[in-house]
Amino acid sequence: MAPTVAATSAPEKLSNGRVVSYALGDVANNLAFQMTSMFLMVYMTDIAGIPAALAGTIYAVTKVWAGVADLIAGNTVDKANTRWGRLRPWIMWGAAPLAVALVLLFSGTALGIGRGTTAIFVYVLLVDSLFQLCYSFVNIPYGSLSAAMTQDSVDRSRLSGARSIASAVTGVALSAVISPQFQGIGKLMDNDPAGVQTKFMVTCAALGALAIVFYLICFANTREVVPRSPGKVKLSNTLRTVAQNKPLLTLCFGAFFLLGAMFTMNSVAMYYTRSVVGGAQFFTFLMLAQTVGTIAAASFVPAITVKLGKPKGYVIFAFIAVVGYVLAAVVPQGGLIVAIIAWLVFGVGSGGTNALMFAMQADTVDYGEWKTGTRSEGGSYSILSMVRKMGQGLGGAVGGAVIAAYGYNGKAAEQSAQAVDGLRVATGWVPAALGIVAALVIWFYPLTAAKHKAIVTELNERRLARTAPEVAAAAPQAGAPAAGRPVVTFFEQYGAGAEPIARKVAERLGVEYVAQILSSDQLERAEAALVGAGADSGVTRFLRSFSGAGTSDADLAADAADLEADRNLAHDNAVTVMESVVNGGVVVGRNATFVLHDHPSALHVRLIAPVETRVARAAEQFGISPDVARARQEREDRVRAEMSARLFNWNPHDDSFYDVILNTAHYSVDEAVEVILNAAKIRAHR
Q1: Nearest to 278 by CA among 343, 321, 337, 346
Q2: SS3 for 632-684, per residue?
Q3: pLDDT single digits (tens) 445-474
Q4: Which of 98, 237, 331, 343 could form a disulfide with 289 if both were Cys (CB 3.0 to 4.6 A apart)?
C-alpha cells in the first residue's frame, strides 16, 4: 500500500504591500498619540497659558479616562460584523473623528478661547477626553488586526516588526518637525500670539490629514482572513479572576510606577531640553538616542531572559533606566552630549522593561488559566493597559506639580534658576525614585521561570486531553489513535535527511506520510521580505528580536490578539496531527513529537548530522549552492525551534523528547530506514 501525502500547502504569505500598509496604520496612530504625548503639556502651559499644576491635572484625568475608554472600545469593537470584517471598519470610521479631535485639541486659543482662563482649561480637558475616546476606537482594533490578517507566526513577526519600526521612525520624525517650534516660544507669544496659535492649528490639521490618508491606505490594503474565535470572555468574569492572579496584580502594580517614572520624564522633557540642554531643536537628538537605546535593548532581551529569567531581567533594565534618569538630573548646563547619553541609557532601560513587561503579561495569562480555568488574553491585557494609562496620568500630574512648585512660568521668556532646578528634579530625580519602586515591586514577582514552565506543561496536557475527543468524533469509524497502528514522528536538523527517510519509512509501514507544513522556500521568502531580497541572517535576526519587543500601549492589543491566535493555531495543529495518525502515520515536524508524546505506539525520532555534512547534502538534494544551503541551515534550525517554543513552549532540541537520535552522517538512507523500522517494531511490542 503506497503512502498518501497530507496536504502541505501553507496559507498564502502576506505581500510586502500588505505589511507596509499595515505599518502605515501605526504611523497614523503615532502622528496623533505622540503629538499629544510629547507636546501637549508644553502647549498647555506655554501657548494656552494653563498653569503647570493644572496642566498636569488635565494630563492625569484624561489618561485615566483613556484606560476606561480602552475597556469601552474593546467591548464595543468586537461586536461589529460588516462586509469589511470586524476590525478594519473601525479604522475607516474612526480616522476622521480622531484627526478632528487632534486639531481641536491644539486650537483652543486660535478659535478665540482666552489664554490662561478657566474656559481654556475646561476646553482642553473636554477635548482631550474626546481625543482619548476616539484614539481607543481606532487603536484597539488596529492592534488586534495583525492576528486577524494571518495565523502564520513568521508573517505576524513581519507585521510586528514593521509596526515597531514605523512607530520609532514616526516619533523621531515628529520631534524633528514640531520641537523647533517651541524654541523661544515665550517671546513669540509676546510678539505674535495669533500667529503662533494659528501655526499650531495648521500644523495639526496637516498631521491629521496625513493620518487620515495612512489610515485609509491601511484599511484598503489589509484583509481579515482569520475567523473570529467562538465565544468571548466577559470583562466581568475577567475582573473576578484578577483577584486570584497574584502575578498579574504584582505586574500591574510595578507597571503603574514604571509608567509613572517614564511619563514624569516625558511630560517635562521639552521644557528640560529648552532650559537645560540649550534649545528645543535638540529634542530630536534625544528622541533619536532613546530610540537607538530601545532597539538595542530589544536585541538583548532574549539572551537576558534565557540566562536570568524575565523578572530579574526586568529589574536589571529598570535600574538601567534609573541610571539614565540620574544622568539627566546632573547634565551640565548646555551639556548636549551628556544628555544624549542619558537618553540613550534611558532608552535601553525603558525598552527592556517594556518588552519584558509584555512578555511577563503573557505568562500571567497562562497562570490565570491554570488557576481558574478561564483564559482571557484580551481581558487581562485590558487591565494592564488601564493601569499603564493610570501610570501615565500619574507621571503627567507629578511632572506638572513639581515644575509648578519650583516656579515654572509658561508666560516667561526665560525661566529662573529655581525653575530650572525644578526641571532637573522632574526629569531626573523623581522618575529615578519611581523607577526604584517599580524595580522593588517586580523583585517580589511570584511567577518564576521554573513555575511557569510547569504550568505551561500542565496546560498543554489539559488541552491535548480535550483535543483527543474532537479527533475521535471527527473519525468515528477508526476511533481515537490507539496502540498497534505504527506512528513515527521526525524532527530534524536542516539537511539531516528527514524527507527521503520519512517517506521510505511510511512506504514500508504502509501508512500516511505527512510533510512539514512550511517548506524551506516559504521560510526563505518570508524572512527575505523583512529586509528585502538578499538580506543576511544577522539583520533578519535583529529585526525578528525587535519585532517581539513591545514598547507602547499599541503593542498590548496586538500581543493579546497574537496570543489568542497562537493558542488557536496550536489547537488546530494538534487536531490535524492527531487526525492524520488515527490509522497510523509518519509525520515530519508540525510539533508532532510534542503533540503525540503520550501516544502509546509512537516512536519519536530526531535526525542530526555535522553542519558541513548537512549543508553538502542539502545542496545536492535540492540543487542549490552551498551558500544558499548554509543560509537555510542557519535559518531553519533557529526559526523552527522558535515556532515550537512560541506555539507549544517546548524545545525540540531537548533530547529527552526522543526515543531515537540518529546521526545520519553514519548511515545511508536505506540503513537509516532499517534502524528506525527496527526501533518501531520494538516500540510496538512493548
Answers
A1: 337
A2: HHHHHHHHHHHHHHHHHCCCCCCHHHCCEEEEHHHCCHHHHHHHHHHHHHHHH
A3: 998 878 877 887 777 677 666 655 655 554
A4: 343
Contact 616, 623 (CB under 8 A): no
* Residue 248 and residue 381 in contact, taking contact as beta carbons nearer than 8 Å: no
What is the pLDDT of the chain when averaged over all its residues? 82
C-alpha span between 344 and 367 (Å, rounded):
35
Predicted pLDDT of residue 379: 66
What confidence tier does 273 reach under pLDDT thresholds 50, 70, 90? very high
> In angstroms, how far apart are the furthest CA atoms of the chain?
94
Q: Please indicate whether residue 588 or residue 544 has the higher confidence score (pLDDT).
A: 588
* pLDDT class of 324 with cuts at 50, 70, 90: very high
> Is the distance from CB of 149 to CB of 224 less than 8 angstroms?
yes
Query: Which CA distances in Å does 51 have to 7, 42, 167, 393, 398?
Result: 67, 10, 31, 17, 14
Q: Concatenate the DSSP letters of all residues of 182-213 into one string.
A: GTTHHHHHHH-HHHHHHHHHHHHHHHHHHHHH
Mind giving me the DSSP string for 542-600?
Answer: HHHHHHT---STHHHHHHHHHHHHHHHHHHHHHHHHHHHTTT-EEEESTTHHHHTTT-T
Which DSSP string corresponds to 256-321? HHHHHHHHHHHHHHHHHIIIIIS-GGGHHHHHHHHHHHHHHHHHHHHHHHHHH-HHHHHHHHHHHH
Over residues 70-120, the pLDDT tens digits come to: 888 877 876 777 888 888 999 999 999 999 999 999 999 888 898 889 999
**pLDDT exceeding 90 applies to what percent of the chain?**
38
Q: What is the pLDDT of residue 152?
A: 67
Going 609 to 610 to 615 to 621, the CA torsion angle's sign is negative
DSSP string, 461-522: HHHHHHHHHHHHHH-TTT-S--TTS-EEEEEE-TTS-HHHHHHHHHHHHT-EEE--SS-HHH
Give the cell for residue 338: 551628556
- Give the whole-angstrom CA distance, residue 638 versus residue 643: 9
Q: What is the CA radius of gyration of the chain?
A: 28
pLDDT (average), residues 324-328: 97
What is d(CA 146, CA 162) in angstroms, rounded to the nearest whole number? Answer: 11
d(CA 253, CA 572): 36
Q: How far apart are CA 217 and CA 72, in angstroms?
A: 26
Give, rounded to a whole angstrom, the gap between the first and last alpha carbons of the chain: 26
pLDDT higher than 80, residue 497: yes
| SS3 at position 606 | strand
Tell me the C-alpha distance between 56 and 397, whole Å: 4
Q: Assess whether pLDDT exceeds 90 at residue 568.
A: no
Gap between the Cα atoms of 40 and 17, Å rounded: 34
Burial class (CB in 10 A: 0-12, 13-18, 19+), 534: exposed
What count of residues does the chain have?
686
**Mutual orientation of helices 336-372 and 449-474 as an angle, nearest 10°?**
50
Matching residue, cell 518570508: 526
Question: If residue 170 lies in a helix (H) or strand (E), which one and from where to where?
Answer: helix 153-178
Residue 113 CA, chain-centre distance (Å), reads 41
pLDDT band at residue 540 using 50, 70 and 90 as cut-offs:
very low
Q: Which residues contact 97 (CB under 8 A, 6 or more apart)?
A: 134
Residue-wise pLDDT for 555-565, tens only, equals: 555 555 555 66
CB 582 within 8 A of CB 479: yes
